[in-house]
Model the fold of this input.
Amino acid sequence: MANNVDQLKQQVALAAVKYIQPYLKPDAIIGVGTGSTADLFIDALSQHKQQFKAAVASSKRSAERLRQHGITVLDLNQVETMPVYVDGADEINPQLQMIKGGGGALTQEKIVASVAEHFVCIADHSKWVETLGAFKIPLEVIDSAKQAVIRQLQHLGASQVTERAGFISDNGHPILDAAGFALTDARELEQAINQIPGVVCCGLFAQKPASVLLLAKPDGVQTISL
Ligand code: 5RP
Done:
């Protein structure tokens, strides 16, 4: 029985590879996310690298790990469609809406996920919440717009917005972490944040939630879909 978080992440990574087996075809491009759970998924996926053509990664970190395993990594511009994108989350609710971007890769994650037909979220049970928002919402922003964005976020109800110290995204932008919203309607909040000039991407993934969640619990991996 898996108990600690690392064991649970390992278990869900293996379950994800099993789950996506039907999508592993000679011409298939697999979308791959970012984070410690995604890292374990990459390691497990590498055992099946002969079964698919290539991957698209949501970060330089994941691209590097994929290449180290001998998996071809394509730029998203070279790819029209992907059957599946597999990634972790910082929080996920029963509507399979997520907060993502704890690793700062939210923009690429949202873009790659938007091109994939299915988003398979892989998470240990510590990420499961009834209501999103205990985890601060990450936002990738244009550097010169930081203060203007912070004022707008406060207007939308944020009680605390901090800049992630010393962190610059793969796209060259700073990340803000925003807390304190009344998150009763995550779709509406995501839309409102998306309207703020200077916001490159919002770490709320509510308008396009995951297609399925593989949730690792001490008694096994549960598959949850809407
Ligand atoms: C990175 C992410 C990750 O998916 C999220 O932070 C979960 O990470 P981990 O698997 O390490 O718990 O959104 O930007």
In short: The radius of gyration is 17 Å. The chain has a mean pLDDT of 97. The CA atoms of residues 115 and 159 lie 34 Å apart.
